[in-house]
Amino acid sequence: MRYAFSSGELLYEQNKKELPEGILEGQFIEYESVEPDTDFYCIGKINDKDVKVRFNISNNDFVHIKNKHCFGILMQSDLLNTDWQSYEILSVEK
Question: What residues does 45 pair with on adjacent strands?
């Protein structure tokens, strides 16, 4: 399912994450479930180019994320700003 960042997250720039490739500015987060092996996707821009980034949350941050999800207070910025175990840029505008 696709989730947009809230206006508050955009206002306080909580939709941004610094990566070696540049600053990822997220517009949406997509995921189907919140489990340790879930692939999360951030759709947005890096250096003004459209991207889709697949990422996995580190084990250290997963418990916190799972608890927020169970209580119904999980925000897109919570996912974006966790410690990522791994990520891959899947598509870039040419």
Answer: 25, 50
